[in-house]
Specification:
Blueprint (H helix, E strand, L loop, with lengths): L7 H29 L8 H6 L1 H17 L9 H4 L19 H23 L5 H20 L3 H7 L13 H5 L9 H23 L21 H28 L1
Helix pairs in contact: 1-6, 3-9
Length: 258
């Protein structure tokens, strides 16, 4: 199998996957220790202050990530960078093709319903603040998994060719922090507010400048101009998974025949 050199964008996302995973595991360990000790794990002001460094690190890292997303960046995926005018390179065609608006609505509906159920459990005191924060951090890890390995939204709903053409790329933080809506805290609502601002800015740009989001009208999104190369990376991983699955099946069949 021919090796594919990771692009700067891919490398950046692997780094992001690493530190997000570390954050999740750190908060999970802290949560378990706190609950086993019989203490409360909430996002109220006095609890946030008592775990200042941990909560502060989570808040600061994601707030910085979101603020940077408002501006063009050479190490971010073209999937989120296509919204900026500097990345719009007209092809000369005027036929804007955005076929996945209905699918995007379905994704939003499914996500809202799922998190409403989570919120109902929280309001019923079945789930505490800590579980909702852990869920957000788990979402953040899954966000990187979607970009680097497998995206269920792409495969099952949107049917887009790759992350570059993704209609909902900048929904990531809003989806990530949806559970924080149910926690009455400046800590949670400030993160959610920044995420919603990103979402609103993205949607306004989609509707005002749809030509930036269509490969038919924006040369920036063409495969030939892609600097990300994640699709090639994913294809190699998919081939590896298929071969691994085939090998496992053959091994199991050989064992059963003995």
């Amino acid at each position: 199998m021919k090796k594919t050199k990771l692009s700067a964008v891919s490398t950046f996302y692997y780094i992001r996957l690493t530190y997000r995973s570390i954050l999740f595991l750190t908060v999970l360990i802290r949560y378990i220790i706190t609950r086993v000790g019989g203490s409360e794990f909430s996002l109220s002001a006095h609890v946030v202050e008592s775990y200042g460094f941990l909560f502060g690190a989570v808040w600061l890292i994601f707030m910085v990530e979101m603020l940077l997303r408002f501006f063009p960046s050479p190490i971010e995926s073209p999937g989120c960078q296509k919204q900026f005018s500097k990345n719009y390179t007209p092809t000369g065609r005027t036929d804007v093709r955005l076929h996945d608006n209905n699918a995007a609505f379905i994704v939003a509906l499914v996500w809202i319903v799922f998190n409403l159920i989570i919120g109902a459990f929280h309001m019923s005191n079945i789930l505490d603040d800590g579980i909702l924060l852990l869920l957000c951090l788990a979402y953040s890890v899954c966000d990187m998994v979607c970009i680097l390995f497998f995206c269920p939204f792409q495969t099952w709903f949107l049917k887009n060719k790759c992350c570059c053409s993704c209609r909902i790329y900048n929904w990531d933080y809003a989806m990530m922090f949806t559970p924080l809506f149910f926690i009455r805290s400046w800590y949670s609502w400030s993160l959610l507010a920044a995420a919603i601002c990103l979402l609103i800015r993205w949607e306004i740009t989609v509707w005002r400048y749809p030509e930036r989001f269509s490969e038919n009208t924006n040369r920036y999104l063409a495969c030939a101009n892609c600097s990300e190369r994640l699709c090639t990376h994913k294809k190699h991983l998919q081939k590896f998974r298929v071969k691994l699955s085939q090998y496992a099946t053959k091994t199991i069949n050989r064992i059963l025949k003995k």
